Amino acid sequence: MRIEDKITEQPSHYDHLEKMEAGEILEAINREDRLIAEAVHHVIPQITALVEAIEPRMKRGGRLFYVGAGTSGRLGVLDASELPPTFGVSPDWVVGIIAGGDEALRRAVENAEDDAIRGWQDLEAYKPSADDSVIGIAASGTTPYVIGAIEGARKQGLLTGCITSNPNTPLAAAAEYPIETIVGPEFEYDFNIAYDKDGASRRQPHG
Length: 207
Prior knowledge:
Elements: H1 22-42, H2 44-59, E1 64-68, H3 70-87, E2 94-98, H4 116-124, E3 133-137, H5 144-155, E4 159-164, H6 170-174, E5 177-180, E6 191-195, E7 201-205
């Protein structure tokens, strides 16, 4: 999937943030945040299908795994970590797996997200069964670590779902129950600034 085809990698709707007042920036961020609820509303049927597929498996003792890299992985680990104190469930019932291991929760682990084989290996270490379910989380929908985990899990008969913010991604194709919440580009565009010989800047998005 080409970077120019990813909605999440498109230029932000807001440019020249350095020229905006703090209040303007906060209003703009809040405006973008309100799009999330509407995006979730559009995929409630897909969320419902995934929940209804997972429920009987967990009632039989199956576990739920979140698999992600970077921020997506951290959010999965955070959600899994909140369940025991909030609902009194076993910490082994819902498990968050992040590329690069626990070290990646605090600092970036270079190239960890690009290892597709390691994605399934990290999941396999938990000795998953057919009653277990795996949800891959990746805004781009192209993270090799997550795709590898989902593909490996599906081959072994586990239920697989995913959450992504781009349409028609390799991750969605790999999962049985894809959820595509399309919320648009990031608020702050991630770019390098290079300069032409005449001093004019040109933006180069990261790959």
